[in-house]
Amino acid sequence: MAKTKYRKPLVNKFIFPTFVLIFIGSCSFQPKDSNDSSTNNLNAGCISPKESVERKMELESGIRGQVKFLGESENFSSITNKMSEYNIPALSLAVINRGKIDWAEIYQNSNFSEVQKLDCMSIFQAASLSKPVTFLAAVRMHSAGEIDLDKNIQNYLKDFVIPRGKQTAENPVTFRNIFSHTSGINSGGYQGYAKNLDMPSDLDILRGNAGVNSPAIDVITPPNETLAYSGGGYTLAELALQDIYNDEFSNIMKKWILEPAKMRHSEFTQPLLASKTNQIAKGFTQSGNVLDGGWRNHPEQAAAGLWSNSIDMAKFLIEIYNAYQGESSIFSQSDIKSIISQERDGHVYGFLLNRSDDAISITHYGGNAGYRTGMTINLKSGNGLVYLMNSDNGGALGNELLLSASQVYNWQHFKQISVQRRQVSSEVLKGLSGEYKWNNQINLSITFDEKNNLISLYFPNGDEYKLIAIAGDNLEFIHPNNGVKVTFLKNDDYRSFSIYGQTAVKL
Fold it and tell me: What parts of the chain have a pLDDT lower than 70?
């Protein structure tokens, strides 16, 4: 990216509803084909070298929560028991140590009536992990002189005219501000389409035509001003790349990123060819039911359409780490360091960025219907982790895996939060229940569980945050699994609450 000078935008407003996004039982679990952890598990594609056995066993049995309550003993559990508690059918997990895959495993819950024969090469929907893969492919195109990340993207579009919104000729929508979520384009996430429905085209989606379950795109804020998560922007970039190369998006990604990174079991094809559907880990709802048809199709490939597994996604992260170290044949060191330097409000091109004296870590989460995913890597140490789960319940376990791996491998960027419980009357808790509007655009709901005397926060994607009251100046709660705080404001008679730095108002 050194070829084009980047003008750092002014970001004066933060809107980032990512749902970071982004478990104890007694059932029988078995890591698929992992009886002999002393060798690479070639049959299943799993990786368990002798030198990793102790670390693997320690992580598998040492799962802990994000939150530690003061004065209470800490409980530890196992991956398999947590999967039972959270009702998760399968987990694809890879741990990265010093720039190499330390080990990788597939875990399956035999309690499910429909237990698939999965292995480490089985594929899951990567959900929003699709976005950084798309972005890094575009970085390669830019470095090769094929595209200009800072050029008005309208110049690349053949049949679509971006609706006139807050963009101007002097401040246009570009690939760069799309990938950094500062394009000003609406439409945060996508629901996908049932397999029995016709899949709309990119043009249909961008225009919001009949049969499309997302709004037409519009540039609702001036580009480079507001940080706002936008799947719609990525779909616009997807169309532009297809117009540039006159090819299908899946083929473009295969050439520019999947093959160079040796991600041999990954692809963006939507819908997936029938000959490959037996490789898919079917998605499941919160209640443990398989999605109709097994999964939803995502024509919004750049935003949510990648099929992959933890090993392939680990290869992707390792290439970024290698580039930061100046040792990648895919990405240049200058490109990766340029990307990292463009931080805004703790984010960089969709990644959460964490800096400390000895760490620069990038983290990304994803959530499609029936799937929850996440990945992280420290660009200085080469330590990281990737998880993909086929359940709407996977977010909590994902956070616990990241925290527990931090303890086992001595990472610095995922740490426990220590808090003091607080007793709140059932009358007060019941009064908090209702419907809320978050960021003036997203509907959230809170329910009261009288039996357990607690409240739960629900997101549109199905995520449930069970909240525990904690000591604080206002009426504060915390989600014990991921550490997210929810604060009801005293000066508003508790009719609004803040989460992720944004306010939700009771309807």
Answer: 1-44
Tokens of 391: 């359940």
DSSP conformation class of 113: S
In eight-state DSSP terms, residue 288 is S
CB atoms within 10 A of CB 38: 11
Give phi and psi for 493, each to the nearest 5: 55, 30
Return the number of other C-beta atoms located less than 10 Å from residue 302's C-beta: 32
Dist. CA 443–CA 460, nearest whole Å: 7
Measured distance CA(164)–CA(177) in Å, rounded: 17
Look up the CATH superfamily of 29-128+280-418. DD-peptidase/beta-lactamase superfamily (3.40.710.10)
- To the nearest 10 degrees (0 to 180), the angle between helices 333-340 and 130-143 is 130
At 472, list the tokens.
């604080």
pTM of the entire predicted model: 0.84
Q: Please state which of the four CATH numbers 1.10.3720.10, 3.40.710.10, 3.30.420.10, 3.40.390.10 is assigned to the domain occupying 130-276.
A: 3.40.710.10
Relative to beta strand 475-478, strand 464-470 is antiparallel
> What whole-number distance in Å separates Cα of residue 125 and Cα of residue 306?
6
